[in-house]
Amino acid sequence: MNEFSLIERYFQPLSPVLLKDDAAVLSIPAGHELVVSSDTLNEGTHFIAGADPADIAHKALRVNLSDLAAMGADPLAYQLNIAFSAMPDEIWLEAFTAALAADQAAFGIFCSGGDTTSIKGPLSISITAMGVVPAGQAVTRGGAEPGDVLLVSGPVGGAFCGLQALQRQPGFTVSEALIEACYRPCPRTDLAEAVRMYAHAAVDISDGLVADLSHICEASGVKAVLEAETVPLSEEVKVLLRSGAVSRESLLSGGDDYQLLMAVPPQHTQHFPGSTVIGRFEEGAGVRVQDVDGQVLSFKEKGWTHF
User: Is 21 helix (H, G, I), strand (E, B) or coil?
Assistant: First the structure.
């Protein structure tokens, strides 16, 4: 099987457009703007060697969908670029493309093209996802205002715990649900409309809650007060925290949760079902993390950095 037969057999079924051209032509609905996000996943950094190809596919696409949701955009199409060190077997390709097809159906998106190539190194996958938003309604990190409350769309820390288990930390075992939280995040595309209608600013939690919150504060020129003990955790993560297997600091800085952090006027919180108020925005700068008594908690690491 060569590059062109690989594309024809496995990737063409993902697309309603012909993948034999050098570029795709996409129609944008009248009165809308295009929102574009790119992420690269590398073997050994974002997933372990020998990982389930379905898990790799789900994560590669969903992390981009999460970025679109944070800006209030609805999914449209994506470009897939994949670099193989050697031609994969058909079982791998079938699992990988079946997972993409399932997510396309679930999230209303399609593959509009991309590139397959070889690499002298580990597997590398890049996806550029495109979404649409009514003109002028895209939400950025820079609109938070003093008086806004800080909302998080769901529990955090599960992906961090799943990663610890995957890295085979001694004596550390978790359920399949936390492994899935690591490899198959759930992008909050269901909140995209509410984000663009009611949120002043938003970001998805990819690098860690504290780190990503600091991005909102820096872009908006405000201070955030984060009430650490109000941050929602799953029951299993609560057990791990109480046992000392993980620290609150690690849960708030571990990343890969792909929940949304949002600055929302307090009168509009009801438009974000399942979300939790975990703090507020004030005049000032930076992020203050405090316990139930108002004492400041210090963090050695606020989140993931590549360099």
Answer: coil
Query: Of 134, 156, 186, which residue is a domain's last?
Result: 134
- Tens digits of per-residue pLDDT, 3-21? 778 888 888 888 877 677 7
For residue 1, what are its two tokens? 């099987």
Same domain, 255 and 156: yes
Neighbours of 42 (CB within 10 A): 15
Give me the CATH number covering residue 42.
3.30.1330.10
The pLDDT of residue 304 is above 60: no
pLDDT at 48: 78
Query: In the numeric block, which tokens belong to residue 141?
Result: 């990190």
The partner residues of 69 in beta bridges, in order of sequence, read none
Give the DSSP letter of residue 185: -
- Reference 82, options 166, 163, 22, 6; nearest CA is 6
Supply φ then ψ for residue 212, to 5 degrees: -70, -35
DSSP line for 128-153: EEEEEEETT----GGG--TTPEEEES
Say whether pTM exceeds 0.85: yes
- 130, 157: one domain: no
Tell me the backbone φ, ψ of residue 297, rounded to 5 degrees. Answer: -100, 130
Predicted confidence (pLDDT) per residue in 169-219, tens digit: 677 889 999 999 988 999 999 999 999 999 999 999 999 999 999 999 999
Q: What are phi and psi of 144, to 5 degrees?
A: -65, 145
